[in-house]
């Protein structure tokens, strides 16, 4: 993990098209501004984890349905 120290108003660059700027520091919280292409997906970690869990559950259901249809087709032969 790369750890950087930035002051209020300073930023870091990721590749040529993503910039993260320290916008506000208030107590123990830091507010970050992110400039990135519109197609770049940016989520808080807890939201990203929830999306991943839902996607995995959905993929499991799809696999179960595919097996069920496959079993039905095999049984009808």
Summarize the SSE layout with pairings.
Elements lengths: L10 E4 L3 E9 L2 E7 L9 H31 L2
Antiparallel strand pairs: 1-2, 2-3
In short:
The protein has one helix and three strands, in the order βββα. The protein has 77 residues and is an alpha+beta fold.
Distance between the termini: 56 Å
Proportion of beta-strand residues: 25-35%
Total strands: the figure is 3
The percent of residues in helical segments reads: 40-55%
Biggest sheet overview: 3 strands, antiparallel
Low-confidence stretches: none
Number of domains: 2
Apparent shape? elongated
Strand order of the largest sheet: 1-2-3
Instruction: Provide the structure class.
Output: alpha+beta
Give the integer mean of the pLDDT values.
87
In angstroms, what is the radius of gyration? 22 Å
Describe the structure.
- With 77 residues, the chain is of the alpha+beta class.
- The chain folds into 2 domains: 1-38, no CATH class; 43-77.
- It has 1 helix and 3 strands, in the order βββα.
- It has one helix spanning 45-75; strands spanning 11-14, 18-26, 29-35.
- Strands 1-2-3 form a 3-stranded antiparallel β-sheet, with no helix packed on it.
- The longest helix has 31 residues, at 45-75.
- It is elongated, with a radius of gyration of 22 Å.
- The mean pLDDT is 87.
